[in-house]
Design the sequence.
């Protein structure tokens, strides 16, 4: 009984001092001591959450994002178009900086930095057209086959099938990626 009272009081102090994130961390730490490992709650950050966490850590524009198990690898180009960072975002939203450097050729990144549609907006557009879970997003301005700069978004559908979609960097229009062979999750060729 006293232990529960102390834990409740500690949680109240944590909430007042550190907010909900600190409370979640404290609750997770306490439950890890008292509950079996399989019962410990795990926060899973989705692609949008990983992008937001990365941008909070290193302000700029997401260039690419992909999931590797419970870790998100996020590349961010600074708003100046010159600095960039390779970040990892854990399942809990913790950000680790793996590499940060300067690329003295800002012209290379000018289209990305100036794109009307961001990575976050591209993910939302792809999910609105094709429900599922985003597993990666990449900026593509290679001008392959005469294509304009766009986002490539990989979405995993509820049935486990993954499909690639191109999202226009100017208007957010979603089409099946030419790399996907027209195999979109709803069976229609959206080109």
Sequence:
């Amino acid at each position: 009984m006293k232990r529960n009272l102390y834990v409740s009081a500690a949680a109240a102090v944590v909430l007042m001092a550190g907010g909900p994130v600190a409370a979640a961390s404290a609750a997770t730490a306490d439950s890890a001591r008292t509950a079996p490992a399989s019962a410990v709650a795990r926060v899973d950050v989705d692609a949008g959450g990983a992008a937001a966490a990365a941008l909070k850590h290193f302000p700029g524009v997401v260039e690419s994002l992909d999931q590797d198990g419970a870790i998100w690898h996020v590349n961010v180009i600074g708003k100046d178009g010159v600095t960039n960072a390779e970040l990892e975002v854990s399942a809990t939203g913790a950000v680790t900086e793996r590499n940060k450097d300067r690329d003295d050729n800002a012209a290379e990144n000018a289209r990305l930095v100036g794109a009307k549609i961001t990575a976050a907006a591209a993910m939302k557009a792809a999910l609105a057209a094709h429900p599922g879970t985003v597993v990666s997003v990449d900026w593509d301005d290679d001008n392959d086959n005469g294509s304009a700069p766009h986002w490539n978004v990989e979405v995993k559908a509820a049935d486990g099938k993954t499909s690639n979609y191109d999202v226009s960097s100017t208007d957010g229009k979603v089409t099946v990626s030419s790399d996907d062979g027209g195999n979109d999750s709803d069976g229609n060729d959206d080109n």
